[in-house]
Amino acid sequence: MRCLKTFSLFCNYCINRCSGINNLLRVCEVSVDPSRGTLKIHRFVSAVDCGQVANINGVKAQVEGAIQDGISATLRQEITVNHGQVEQSNFHDYRLLRINDAPERIDVHIVDNEFPPTGMGEPPYPPVAPALCNAIFAACGIRIKRLPIANQLKQNA
């Protein structure tokens, strides 16, 4: 917490500059069956420090949506090109996150502080893939080196 406050103070110190600093933490709990190449996401926890919050429910919804969109991209979203033609034509062969792939639980914790508000549009999305890939590694020892990961889990089966 001290580190976050020090960093936020530095950003407020810069005069005549515009900077938006947003601090996020992601923790993901998964179970992996390497023999079948299956993954179950049990829980995603997010801690967010975005300064003063005007709409707590809006921030939580933004983070929850970003987590689900990030999981979707991390698991399966891939566009492939073969002989100059895109192979995916619609949602039957470009899979998005489905309810059975979604985390059973998403917890969002907002750090309460007196610092000016920062953006919450894009910052919640990028930490999803590293959190998910590190959780997979911790669960079964498979190191994910490229996205999407669904095929890599099956290749290791």
Helix content: 25-40%
- Spans where pLDDT lies below 50 across 5 or more residues: 12-19
Q: Tell me the series of helices and strands, N- to C-terminal.
A: HEEHEEEHH
Portion of residues in beta strands equals 15-25%
Alpha carbon gap, first and last residue? 41 Å
What strand line-up does the widest sheet have?
1-2-5
CATH fold-level name: Aldehyde Oxidoreductase, domain 4
Number of helices: 4
Radius of gyration: 18 Å
Describe the structure.
The protein is an alpha+beta fold and 157 residues long. The chain has one domain (22-80, 87-155): Aldehyde Oxidoreductase, domain 4. It contains four helices and five strands; from the N terminus they run αββαβββαα. The protein has helices at 2-13, 56-75, 128-140, 150-155; strands at 23-33, 38-49, 81-82, 85-86, 105-110. The protein has a three-stranded mixed sheet with strand order 1-2-5. A two-stranded antiparallel sheet has the order 3-4. The longest helix has 20 residues, at 56-75. The radius of gyration is 18 Å and the shape is globular. The model is unreliable at 12-19 (pLDDT under 50).
